Automatic annotation (TrEMBL):
Residues 69-209 form the Phosphatidylinositol-specific phospholipase C X domain. It comes from the Eukaryota. One of its GO terms (biological process) is lipid metabolic process. This is Phosphatidylinositol-specific phospholipase C X domain-containing protein. InterPro entries: PI-PLC_domain, PLC-like_Pdiesterase_TIM-brl, PLipase_C_PInositol-sp_X_dom. Pfam families: PI-PLC-X (PF00388). One of its GO terms (molecular function) is phosphoric diester hydrolase activity.
Length: 332
């Protein structure tokens, strides 16, 4: 069989390159079309909802402002961050753009108003995102403890999981209990119906999600994976993710009737042809308030509970705090 000539090699790679470019262009058009669809929905229906004009006097203590003796755990719309501890991941300008989902430290996120943290670890107790590693999980725990020492009536959900493809840190459950101690709100289904004041001075609901180690037992200081659920889908298409989030949220019971936390991740996932997290995130992040408004339009705003994002900002926190305030006031 004759070997291919140099011209045949050129023809082959030209065809492959042409196919890759064509697919890239088509995919960019698809993303653009979906973002335009969300923009059209925003223009036609708006992003106002009960509590949308609320702005806490101090985001650092927004739960306190709403009244710990009035605010029940199952009334809270919890502003969360996705891959919360990636602010120092990878090499700047080299690998970091492909893995960094937050630019603020854990402490600064909490001061901004974040109340749900998503932390990924590996066997050596370091933060990781995929194959990239960062600082020790102690940095996270110290940030949480520092914040709670300054804000005495705020509750935080701290989710810690072993990252996909990694092994569990040995005896990590014991380590978490040792480090967080009296701050931990022990697992108890009755917590959901309690006010913030009724669970104080304990202030951390810690959900530990190991890959192979035993799950936390009922009644223990840590909560098992089933108490923080979501329906994540792997897509970088903004309306596809928006619609999926809405569909799955609509399938949940009202938050007041649940004995678990349900999370909506208002994020999209980078792809090889669309790999920079911040650029991908910009396709959906501007529509967070629209999502909340649409839960009212669809008649199931009472089901929204944990609402998470990449690169959290003041407007996102205010939207969650505002909807929480409306629930406390009986307006939502």
């Amino acid at each position: 069989m004759p070997l291919p000539t140099s011209s045949e090699h050129c023809t082959h790679w030209c065809v492959v390159l042409s196919w890759d470019i064509s697919n890239f262009v088509d995919h960019r058009k698809e993303i653009s079309t979906e973002k335009e669809a969300l923009a059209d929905l925003l223009a036609s229906s708006g992003d106002h909802f009960p509590g949308s004009d609320f702005h806490p006097a101090d985001r650092k203590t927004w739960m306190s402002e709403l009244g710990p003796d009035r605010l029940r755990i199952n009334q809270i719309v919890w502003p969360g961050t996705h891959d919360s501890a990636t602010n120092d991941i990878g090499v700047p300008l080299v690998t970091r753009p492909f893995a960094e989902c937050q630019t603020r430290s854990i402490y600064d996120q909490l001061v901004l108003g974040t109340r749900v943290l998503d932390v990924r670890v590996e066997k050596g107790r370091h933060i990781c995102h995929g194959i990239l590693q960062s600082y020790s999980v102690d940095v996270v725990l110290d940030g949480v403890k520092r914040f709670l020492s300054e804000a005495e009536s705020e509750i935080v959900i701290l989710e810690i999981r072993t990252e996909y493809g990694h092994e569990d840190p040995p005896e990590f459950d014991k380590y978490l209990v040792e480090q967080l101690g009296d701050l931990l709100i022990h697992h108890d289904d009755a917590v959901f119906g309690k006010t913030v004041a009724e669970v104080l001075p304990k202030r951390i609901i810690c959900v530990w999600k190991p890959r192979n180690s035993p799950a936390p037992a009922a009644g223990s200081p840590l909560w098992s994976a089933g108490y923080l659920r979501d329906n994540w889908i792997d897509t970088d298409l903004p309306k596809t993710k928006f619609d999926s989030n809405m569909k799955h949220l609509g399938e949940q019971p009202p938050s007041a009737a649940r004995k678990y936390f349900y999370r909506v991740e208002h994020t999209v996932t980078p792809k090889p042809e669309n790999p920079v997290v911040k650029m991908v995130d910009n396709e959906i992040r501007p529509f967070a308030r629209l999502f909340i408004a649409q839960t009212f339009a669809h008649g199931f705003a009472d089901r929204l509970q944990v609402f998470s994002t990449d690169f959290i900002d003041e407007a996102f926190v205010d939207a969650c705090a505002g909807m929480t305030q409306a629930r406390v006031e009986g307006k939502a």
